[in-house]
# Entry
Amino acid sequence: MCKRIFLTLVLAALPISTSQGENWPQWRGPNLNGVSSEKNLPLRWSTTENIAWQLALPSWSGSTPIIWGDRIFLNVADGNDLYLWCVEKAKGIVLWKKHLGGGNVKVGKQNMSSP
# Structure
């Protein structure tokens, strides 16, 4: 449930037209203020309204998705392993996955921040 809500919020933040858009290279965006310079973004969304696509994740993530060009990079936990996923922005297709390491165990949740 949490992972679907998180991903839906992330996808809702993307413009419906994904052909062009501002890169979001880090937490809180390019200017570190959490503000996008994009125009005409939707003000309302639901599980069906203003959502370009959805992508099921094996678990929830505590990091900020990185948007660069036509790619989205996600930090994804799967069991005790941590992966970097590269997703095509227009269609939500996973292009590749890179294993980053093991031992991804939540202890007090402080380790759930962006690397």
User: Anything to note?
Assistant: Confidence is low (pLDDT under 50) at residues 15-19. Strands lie at 66-68, 71-78, 81-88, 94-101. The two ends are 24 Å apart (CA to CA).
